[in-house]
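Lecture notes, part 5. Sequence design as translation. It can be helpful to think of inverse folding as translation between two languages: the language of shapes and the language of residues. The source text, in structure tokens, appears below.
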């Protein structure tokens, strides 16, 4: 599937480049870096969006809008792994698309639309990226983080996660168990429990 594929020169060692390095290159206008970033993330973003929206046209538009936003705002990325940032953009674009559909169905004119307060889902997603949970997620290994995002954040079954990530179901289960333990430990390090009581 190719929804948005920038044309650019060949990049050496694409697989070894971190998302942060790719985003820095995208911020400098490197379309080949954008193509690598798209190839790396478009598949799982499409799968997650499809879980939340049955309209394939809306999913395609949201995915396209997500990568257009990445192209325009890559300089604003904080420098960590891009998955959470990309998903936050995609989820917000999906919410925007649904709201636009609802307004159009009610016959409202676009010039009368007002931006409502962030939804619960948007606040949770922002917390996952920017709060303690997001910081803790950044501290666990990428393969464990991917399983947690698929099973917990996206609510995929073990079988769906295995298909999405291309790993056996047993591996999904063992990684999910390890991921939860590592996430708890990372959160505990971020927020250590007070020792001792009042004197």
């Amino acid at each position: 599937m190719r929804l948005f594929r920038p044309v650019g020169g060949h990049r050496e060692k694409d697989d070894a480049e971190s998302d942060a390095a790719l985003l820095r290159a995208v911020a400098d206008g490197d379309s080949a870096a954008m193509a690598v970033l798209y190839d790396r993330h478009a598949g799982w973003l499409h799968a997650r969006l499809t879980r939340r929206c049955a309209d394939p046209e809306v999913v395609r538009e949201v995915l396209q809008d997500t990568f257009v936003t990445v192209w325009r705002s890559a300089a604003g990325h904080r420098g960590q792994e891009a998955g959470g940032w990309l998903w936050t953009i995609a989820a917000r674009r999906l919410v925007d698309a649904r709201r636009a559909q609802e307004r159009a169905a009610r016959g409202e004119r676009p010039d009368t639309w007002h931006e409502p307060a962030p939804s619960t889902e948007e606040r949770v997603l922002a917390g996952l990226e920017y709060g303690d949970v997001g910081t803790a997620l950044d501290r666990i290994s990428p393969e464990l983080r991917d399983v947690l995002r698929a099973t917990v954040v996206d609510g995929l079954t073990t079988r769906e996660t295995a298909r999405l990530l291309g790993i056996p179901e047993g591996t999904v289960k063992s990684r999910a168990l390890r991921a939860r333990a590592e996430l708890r430990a990372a959160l505990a390090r971020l927020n250590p429990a007070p020792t001792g009581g009042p004197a």
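The translated text above is only one of many valid answers, since several sequences can fold into similar shapes. The chain is about 65% helix and 0% strand.
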